[in-house]
Amino acid sequence: MSHDPPSRKATSAAPIVFVVDDDASVRDALSSLFRSVGLQVELFESAPEFLQRRLPDVACCLVLDVRMPGVSGLDFQAQLAKTKIQIPIIFMTGHGDIPMSVRAMKAGASDFLAKPFRDQDMLDAVAAAIQRDRQARD
Fold first, then answer.
1. Are 108 and 84 a contacting pair, CB within 8 Å?
2. DSSP of 18-29
3. What whole-number distance in Å separates Cα of residue 65 and Cα of residue 113?
4. What number of other Cβ atoms are within 10 A of residue 133's Cβ?
């Protein structure tokens, strides 16, 4: 695994939502939700798989499950920060607690949603994260 941040070369003007979750049914449901409102989506089963992707130079965000085999979402957030990869992160979990959400938010997460969440709450969180990334790029 390379420790250099992925390149952010321009490939498209449309924002991209990256989803990292080990549960295929969750990935599929989120893909359908985001595509239903015209968002571009890329799905990944694990954090290492996501790291293989070269990040494009477009507004984007990462929807990340907290509990996954291997690297947890919170550990992955710290790993991204150490490697200078800056992308707004929306955490989702079915097993969250207040200390976990506080840790994620203090480390810069855009949002923290408990499963099951309302589709509109996820769409609102993604819209805010993409706007945050657009502003950071300007």
1. no
2. EEE-S-HHHHHH
3. 10
4. 20
Phi, psi of 62 (to 5 degrees): -120, 120
Contact 33, 122 (CB under 8 A): yes
Taken as a whole, the chain contains a residue count of: 138
Q: 């690297």: which residue's tokens?
A: 71
DSSP for 82-133, please give it. HTT----EEEEESS--HHHHHHHHHTT-SEEEESS--HHHHHHHHHHHHHHH
**pLDDT, tens digit only, all 138 positions of the chain:** 333 334 343 334 799 999 999 999 999 999 999 999 999 999 999 999 999 988 889 999 999 999 999 889 999 999 999 988 899 999 999 888 888 899 999 999 999 999 999 999 999 999 999 999 999 988
63 forms beta bridges with: 19, 90
Q: How far apart are CA 120 and CA 36, in angstroms?
A: 12
